[in-house]
Amino acid sequence: RASCHPQLVAPLAWLVSIPPALMSLTTAGILVPSLGKYIEVLLEIVLSLGLVKFIDFITILCGGQQAIVNFCSDNKILLPIGSPPIICLMPCRKPPVTLSRLSVVSFIPGLLFCFKVSILAIDVTLLLIGHTFSGNFFAYDNLHNIASFPVGLLSIYCYNMIMSIISECLPGNTQKFLGFILLILFILFDCLRLFFIFLTGTGMLTCVPPFLSQDLVSHILKNVIKAFLATFIGLPFLKIASGKTELNLLCSSLNHPDNLSSFPDSSSCGDSGICRSQSRDLFQINRDEESTYRKRSK
After folding, report:
1. What are 266-287's pLDDT values in tens digits?
2. Residue 109 CB neighbours (<10 A)
3. What is the C-alpha separation between 213 and 149, in angstroms, rounded?
4. Between helices 9-16 and 214-241, what is the axis angle to 10°?
């Protein structure tokens, strides 16, 4: 708390709790492999919540969505619609960053979180009513998991657009790497699911009947790999999050001639350095105007 601005305490606390939550869930999945299916969804819920909280954190760090929009407008930063995974839009003309567009792009990762929670609710409901899963990937009782793939791709696409904008707004700030680490974890965890679907579908994954079924072996291996990733990628995440955090106010309004009388404090800009060069230019302008006024008065 002492090294963090009061407005950033809540979202940063959520972010710091993500690696311990991931390690705790993967440990539970290793010890109780029968809960592997539900542990997998819980891990995705934690990571999708981390994406949402990082967007809240970085928005507050920049001074709000309006400050980001003003900074993008003054520095001619456009909306990167060619971000991965939809890189086919790179040749298309980029639209300007507006408040409505930024709000929509920031909202989509929250939609992913809600969708993951609904998947967990559906799985628990099917468990409580005694439904027996068919085991077929394209069965009707697995449609909610199939629908999660396009929702995840759309959310990652919007999240990458936000990260591209933030990289332009905060070029010297290390807190933006928290978002990249969360994105790497989310992609790796999601790819593990596809990888083990391929292994089990092709019969390449063996089991030890009757003690361990193929599903139990799959969940044990997935949670072991995820525990390794959560530990060794989560440590640098905690190291970056534990650093001193200050508000990086984007001084876009300084480019307008009506606001030349306002002189921002360079200490409020943190590590970004966005305000410092503009502050020096303003100081020189004020000195020149003062010397001109004195000459005229004499």
Report:
1. 344 444 444 444 444 444 544 5
2. 24
3. 26
4. 140
